[in-house]
Amino acid sequence: MNPRPKPTLTRRLLSYLITLVVLGFVVAVNRPMMAAANEAYREFTINRQSYKEKYGHWSRLHVPDSFRVNAIHAALLHTGKVLIIAGSGNNREAFEAGTFRTVLFDPATDKFTEVPTPTDVFCAGHTFLGNGNVLVAGGTKSYERLEKDITHAAGVMKLKNESPNGGPRTFRKGTILLSGDNTRYRTRADVTLQPAKAMKHGDQTMIHASEVEVWVDAEKAGDGPIVRKPAQYKVDGLTGDDQRNIYGLADKITREKQEYGGDKTAYEFDPRTERYVRVGDMVKHRWYPTLTEMPDGNVLAVSGLDEFGRLLPGDNERYLVDRRRWEATPGLKRQFPTYPAFHIMDDGRLFYSGSNSGYGSDKIGRTPGIWDLTNNSFTTTPGLRNPRMTETSSSVLLPPAQEQKVMIFGGGAIGESPVSTARTDIIDLNAAKPAYRPGPDLPKPVRYLNAVILPDDGVFTTGGSSGYRGGPYQGDARSDLFNSQIYRPRANRFEKAADSTVGRNYHSEAILLPDGRVITLGSDPLYDETGRNPGSFEKRIEVYSPPYLFKKGDRPVISSGPAEVSHGSVIHFPTPDAGRAVAARLIRPSAVTHVLDVDQRSVALPLLRRPHGVTLTFPKRDGVMPSGWYMLFLVDDRGVPSVGRWVRVR
Ligand SMILES: [Cu+2]
């Protein structure tokens, strides 16, 4: 028999190709089945009791269509409801239509309700006041305009008046300003210019010109009207003395990007009436400010962009709670990037963790430190690793607040940088020379990590993305992170928690609910799944139930107790579970936006077991326990907390 001829190269290649095609076909046909099998196995695993006991469990909340809003801000009210604020929700059409949204969600009944929203509070600052109202201040006056959309040169025109006579002068929108070569620029809004001030210095009278600022746009499109140098402009139509006394000054008129402009409107949101109550306007317009309640109960507003989208260079201001109005604090001039994160220390000073979000100088106000408001001194604190990656990081006053330890999580380099970090660092503010020390790394580099203090002293951390706004990261088009983990301060390590199913990056929030669950909302990805088209705002809401909710046996119960307590008081709370109660925690509810939550803190209450209850000692110091509403949790020997009981601290 002749040996079989060796197949030619062509034949061999052909047979490989056929095998490949057949294999590919088999895989393609079975892929949905394999994916379904994987999914079924995952479902089976995460729903097992033993898995839930160890890692907790996520569930999706049903949100009726009419209440699907862009959750930019969220706060837990002492009525137990979650305040969800969108304003215009980072949606230009909504802004231009004047459609501003706020909804309330009641986790006890799963019901949503609508709240009328008078102005655009998108990207305002907020914090709780001692009476439980949420102070909401600033917001959006104008949307950004990108360079590619700017057809007409524009700039900020300072109108000046050097005459003390003639009273206030109003210049209508559309007023023309003329450059030296008679190029025409139109004002964008009505403005009123006060007369100059005449001031006596000894026997001399000095005139201080008044001024008001307004956007102007070139009448003609294109680059012709661009002016790059400071220059003086004539107001069209003025003659004689008026023309000499009243004029315009502009640093530049260009086709550069115009940032979002801040608003100066302020409200107290009243949880009882569920309405915004207008209070005095802020001194400055602010977009992305931080509001911090101070130990005296007043509120400090720091940073933000002004109405022309310029970073406020350290002009901070104070809200006087009793008078419901704002006043400038020239004695507290200090510049920070937008949404700087402050934590009130036990002695009333503010610790700036270095976390911030959005905009700011790359040099000024980026270093963490302790700010003494009594003399405006600022002592920087050393030791933070990756100090250039604090933007979009988060920071938490670790539980319990008495230990005065702050932890910073992740963050990215300034602006739309592709760089982010998995670093956590911890600082002990009780130390003689406080300095950040290395904490355990997060599983992955992350921006926008939401961090929530749990009643069992764990810090639940979830979501975020490695790339800017969930966008490209090291070759992947999308970079949302689904891993969650609980930081255990005692053990100084992260424990794995169940994966979430919804990505949460920029403009997302997470909040502890009174029943011990955590609600997560929002996310504003730059791109869609393909990484090619613009992303859409994430409107789904997820709720995480921590492992303690799956332990066998009943949760401890606080049967009753006073609704109000004062600093330094010792109070008996009846409970049938006194025998197994090991800890009591007073948790101040979250008010969060842009991973900034200066309100959240957990205060330890020393506990004495009695036959039919526990006796709790409340701290004396405002800096440990600022006045306001808190949730009181009793925690048993298995680490299982009671449902939070609302207590007002006076
Ligand atoms: Cu924002």
UniProtKB/TrEMBL annotation:
CDD domains xrefs: E_set_GO_C (cd02851)
Upper taxonomic lineage: Bacteria, Bacillati, Actinomycetota, Actinomycetes, Micromonosporales
GlxA-like beta barrel domain span: 152-253
Keyword Signal in record: yes
Domain Galactose oxidase-like Early set intervals: 555-649
Listed name of the protein: Uncharacterized protein
InterPro entries according to UniProt: Gal_Oxase/kelch_b-propeller, Gal_Oxidase_central_sf, GlxA-like_b-barrel, Glyoxal_oxidase_N, GO-like_E_set, Ig-like_fold, Ig_E-set
One GO biological process term: carbohydrate metabolic process
Keyword list, A-Z: Signal
Domain Glyoxal oxidase N-terminal: 282-548
